[in-house]
């Protein structure tokens, strides 16, 4: 690879594959007449968000205010904060954001509604809100029913708020055994949301947005009438978790961890210079039987276990010629966690180094 200042461990991003992944998900949304609002918590980079918007995304989703601040400063014009905004300092930060770009905020409590309304008052900008409901994941979100209608009434009483609709996240789609189970999860996700939207309309609230979708469920949810936007995130890079779920293909995985062999303590063992501070310990082992990562085309290399700075490899007989100084590229188990552990990534196109991109929203947990 042509790169003047290169060292490991390093996160590699294949732009050709990223562009293909972006086009693929955008085509799914376009074919079904549904908006695509990708979740930027996966990539945390304005450069990727701009690629998604240029391909046809209606906006982006973030988890935290810090991510929204980075993307707003980078010129992203439509941002959904899919997370409760709670706390006085966050109210002031949200107010500042409202003067920079179009912001929608998810709410699921009276306290959250009051916080967003105060931010709107401070900024003198009406704030669009979505009520988050629980469609089976059991995290945040109101149970569908009267509690949602009551919260809609509280929102309607605030002059600085506008109720646009509903949001849900079918995170349980990550825990089901096969594509058919994911499809059924998506049916419940969309069905629950659409029924609740109808109840709100019957109660006199003009709901126009029904926001759904994780990477595993989005391709199924897009085909079910009623949802208006999808919020997948991991699709942009792919990882072994998504491969296991059947939501991504190995050859389309665009993010790899490049590491160097630093020790050969035994014929069947090697150690690389990337451990849990690079790969993360999140997610289950590779569905390919190669542990915490997979070197494409080399199933005889198993990333067996990690400590903070070391990755321990178990080598099949055909891989025991591996030497100190050899370079390996691993598809990780969970790309979102990997991105959040690095300050910059090396971007390639056609197999050639192009540039380094800063992970600008990395660590923005507040």
Would you kindly provide a written description of the structure presented here, covering whatever features stand out?
By secondary structure, this protein is an alpha/beta fold. Helix content is 32%, strand content 24%. It has eleven helices and 17 strands. It has helices at residues 15-31, 46-55, 65-73, 88-98, 110-123, 146-156, 179-202, 215-221, 240-245, 276-279, 335-339; strands at residues 10-14, 35-36, 60-62, 78-81, 102-107, 127-132, 161-167, 209-212, 229-230, 255-266, 269-272, 293-294, 301-306, 311-315, 327-332, 344-349, 352-358. The strands form two sheets. Strands 1, 10, 11, 12, 13, 14, 15, 16 and 17 form a nine-stranded mixed β-sheet that branches. An eight-stranded parallel β-sheet has the order 2-9-8-7-6-5-4-3. Strand 8 (209-212), helix 8 (215-221) and strand 9 form a beta-alpha-beta unit. Helix 3 (65-73) runs parallel beside helix 4 (88-98), helix 4 packs across helix 5 (110-123) and helix 7 (179-202) packs across helix 8 (215-221). The chain is elongated, with a radius of gyration of 22 Å. The model has no long low-confidence stretch (mean pLDDT 96).
């Amino acid at each position: 690879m042509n790169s003047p200042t290169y060292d490991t461990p390093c996160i590699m991003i294949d732009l050709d594959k990223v562009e293909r992944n972006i086009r693929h998900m955008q085509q799914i949304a376009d074919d079904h007449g549904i908006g695509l609002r990708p979740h930027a918590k996966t990539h945390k980079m304005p450069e990727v968000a701009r690629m998604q918007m240029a391909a046809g995304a209606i906006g982006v989703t973030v988890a935290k205010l810090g991510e929204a601040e980075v993307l707003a400063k980078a010129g992203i014009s439509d941002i959904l904060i899919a997370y409760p905004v709670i706390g006085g300092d966050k109210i002031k930060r949200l107010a500042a954001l409202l003067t920079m770009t179009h912001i929608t905020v998810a709410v699921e409590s009276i306290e959250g509604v009051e916080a967003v309304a105060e931010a709107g008052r401070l900024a003198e900008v009406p704030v669009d809100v979505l009520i988050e409901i629980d469609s089976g994941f059991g995290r945040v979100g109101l149970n569908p029913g009267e509690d949602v209608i009551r919260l809609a009434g509280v929102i309607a009483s605030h002059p600085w708020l506008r109720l646009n609709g509903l949001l849900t996240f079918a995170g349980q789609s990550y825990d089901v055994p096969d594509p058919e189970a994911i499809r059924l999860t998506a049916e419940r996700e969309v069905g629950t949301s659409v029924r609740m939207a109808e109840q709100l309309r019957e109660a006199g609230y003009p709901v126009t947005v029904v926001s759904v979708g994780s990477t595993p469920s989005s391709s199924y949810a897009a085909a079910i009438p009623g949802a208006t936007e999808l919020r997948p995130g991991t699709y942009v890079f792919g990882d072994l978790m998504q491969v296991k779920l059947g939501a991504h293909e190995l050859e389309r995985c665009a993010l790899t961890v490049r590491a160097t062999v630093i020790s050969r303590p035994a014929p069947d063992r090697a150690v690389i210079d990337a451990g849990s501070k690079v790969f993360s310990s999140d997610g289950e082992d590779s569905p390919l039987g190669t542990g915490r990562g997979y070197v494409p085309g080399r199933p005889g290399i198993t990333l067996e276990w990690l400590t903070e700075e070391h990755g321990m490899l178990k080598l099949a007989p055909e891989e025991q010629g591996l030497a100190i100084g050899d370079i390996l590229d691993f598809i990780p188990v969970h790309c979102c966690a990997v991105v959040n552990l690095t300050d910059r990534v090396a971007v390639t196109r056609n197999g050639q180094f192009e540039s380094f991109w800063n992970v600008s929203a990395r660590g923005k947990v507040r």
